[in-house]
Design brief:
The chain is α+β, with helices and mostly antiparallel strands. The longest helix is centred in the last third of the chain and has 27 residues. Helix content is about 40%, strand content about 30%. It is globular and about 75 Å long. Keywords: Transferase.
Length: about 200
């Protein structure tokens, strides 16, 4: 999996994020407000978030191993005393296949480690299978909300679920068990004598 780091979003990131907000797949899979907003309004909105809205919203830049931008993440619906938030992200089109899953994992890890968030609310529009296959989305969701969002001329159904610290720890342990099982099979196979 590629290495992704997270840093604070700055004014220099605004043009790249604005282009992402206007990209057609992003609009269909999250929101299309950028289509009806002028460049000045989008810039002002992002600048306002940087300068004045840290109590209710935070934005981050996701960077690849060379330091280049691969996407963005942002948290909203922040409940600081309850240590919960909703996490959203967008990966640049040219980086989606290579960095998508790593970017999401880095964003989750960052907000837990740096902002002390204990529960993260996930929302994915049901038709959006860019990172989560439809079957897995159906299994993960705890709430299915028809008519949740109106994007690109259609009402969209959203799936919601939460991930707690315990969920993350369980997922890490399951991944470690899978790696150990694979390593054991490789060791067993390499220790066996070759057929003559």
């Amino acid at each position: 999996m590629p290495f992704v780091t997270v840093r604070h979003f700055t004014e220099d990131d605004i043009p790249t994020r604005t282009a992402l907000l206007r990209e057609s797949r992003f609009q269909a899979n999250l929101t299309d407000f950028a289509v009806v907003s002028a460049d000045d309004a989008l810039t002002a909105n992002q600048r306002r978030t940087i300068e004045r809205e840290h109590a209710v919203k935070r934005m981050f830049t996701l960077c690849g191993s060379g330091g280049g931008t691969v996407g963005f993440a942002w948290i909203t619906s922040i409940d600081w005393p309850g240590q919960t938030c909703e996490l959203s992200f967008g990966v640049l089109p040219e980086c989606r296949g290579r960095y998508g899953a790593a970017a999401v994992a880095a964003a989750h890890a960052h907000i837990r480690a740096e902002l002390n968030m204990r529960v993260v609310v996930n929302q994915v529009l049901e038709h959006n299978t860019m990172l989560v296959p439809a079957e897995l989305l159906s299994e993960q969701r705890r709430v299915r909300c028809a008519y949740d969002s109106y994007t690109v001329g259609e009402w969209r159904t959203a799936c919601y679920w939460t991930e707690s610290e315990q969920d993350v720890a369980r997922q890490r342990e399951q991944a470690a068990q899978r790696r150990r099982a694979i390593a054991d099979r490789i060791r067993t196979a390499s220790a066996s004598p070759l057929p003559s």
